[in-house]
Description:
Blueprint: H1 37-49, H2 54-74, H3 81-103
Helix pairs in contact: 1-2, 1-3, 2-3
This protein binds zinc ion.
Amino acid sequence: xxxxxxxxxxxxxxxxxxxxxxxxxxxxxxxxxxxxxxxxxxxxxxxxxxxxxxxxxxxxxxxxxxxxxxxxxxxxxxxxxxxxxxxxxxxxxxxxxxxxxxxxxxxxxx
Length: 110
Ligand SMILES: [Zn+2]
């Protein structure tokens, strides 16, 4: 088999390419294409929060976002930095939207 990153011929039994250090999973494929699940969860939570229980999904989204940030820092081969950043921006926007919604009293509308 060949390394997906540098193309060097490598043994299927090794865990990482000896040439470039690219990590390899058990089936021989590089792990580099994996997107961090917490970045996906953060993005999904903030999207959900726009039309369903923002009081629940916004804090959840922030927790996922922070977990994702640490996971991405510790695992450089993980993807999802842009997704995590997009989620963070979405979260800030949603936070402002949430504060706006909470400030509007139902009595002031009539
Ligand atoms: Zn390699």
